[in-house]
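Morning run. Coffee first, then this:
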Amino acid sequence: MKKQTPKEVSLMTSIIPYTPSFKEGLETLLEDSFVRADVQKNLLQHEDCCLLLVEETKILGTALFTGKNKKTSFTLYIHPNHRRKGLGTLLLKALEDKMALEGVEEAVCDFMVHPREEAFLTAHGYNYWFQSNYMTFSGPFPKRPPIHMISYEEAAYLDTHQVFAEAFHNMRTLVGIQSTLEAPSEEEEEYFAEEKDNLFLLKDQGELVSCGLISGQEIETLATHPSKQKRGYGQRLLEGLLYTMHQRGHDQVTLWAVEGNPAKIFYETMGFQVQRLHTLVQKRLMPPTL
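And here it is:
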């Protein structure tokens, strides 16, 4: 039997936009439960950013990017039975073209550490950025929040920005990630206001020392001002976030911790466990050809 080449396989496939009619088929395609949950979550907000690779009515792969921003992240998945046939290259090219048309200038992809995935993305122009640990907590949960934890107040924007910006700039510098100190912005201020029910502050004698943002069962960000670290503030705020999330009905809490960040050890002492290690890569996209 003649062996199919990537070109011959691609002639039997097509790439189409996602529509809700493919929801069940897409869930069947995504055998990796972690990837399936990630795609399902992002589809709720970015349905128009999803492409499907199909052969007649059968879905062979999918690609999805998370918003029409200058810098965005994406997921690309080909069913294991259809890998190493050139389909990933075909789908990635289509996704990059779509992102470029939507004004995306830089694309980021993360994947569970594996040499084959890294080699594939490196061959397509992606450069190593950093690694991050996906961690989970299943209890026991605190029985009460810390006394000085409060919900976000819009008047506290500049102080909140300063805590996040300086803490994460220091962390990135520590682990060797190129970093510049982010300036306040109207977009960030509006985002904090929109998330005021999920953004929590910890104060000590009226001074803001720690901030944390949650989304569903995930702690998206947790930071203590560098001048206030190693004094127990992060632990107190984390306990407050865990308490709040448990009260909202979550029996498991997740977060990401950059590899090399001392916070990973802190989270482990608080009961979090590493479930998987991901590599993040990035690439500057070429402007679309009109």
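The longest strand covers residues 273-284. Good start to the day.
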